[in-house]
Amino acid sequence: MNSIPCVIMRGGTSRGPFIRMKDLPSDQAQQADILLSLMGSGHALQIDGIGAATRSPAKWLL
């Protein structure tokens, strides 16, 4: 596993990763794989990709 320096910045209720291009591989396919992985793309419990998951059903009853 390799590491890539990243900062998660928040603006209001939105947040997102900031990565320097020089820290990513030059191959665009590899860049896309890394960025999609970072965002949690494709995981059923990820709604925004940066750690927020689906709501708990128990909270829907409140």
From TrEMBL:
Gene3D superfamilies reported in the protein's UniProt record: Diaminopimelate Epimerase, Chain A, domain 1
Leader sequence segment: none
Key words, A-Z: Isomerase
Superkingdom classification of source: Bacteria
PANTHER family referenced in this protein's UniProt entry, alphabetically: ACONITATE ISOMERASE-RELATED, DUF453 DOMAIN PROTEIN (AFU_ORTHOLOGUE AFUA_6G00360)
Family to which the UniProt record says this protein belongs: Belongs to the PrpF family.
Stated name of the protein: 4-oxalomesaconate tautomerase
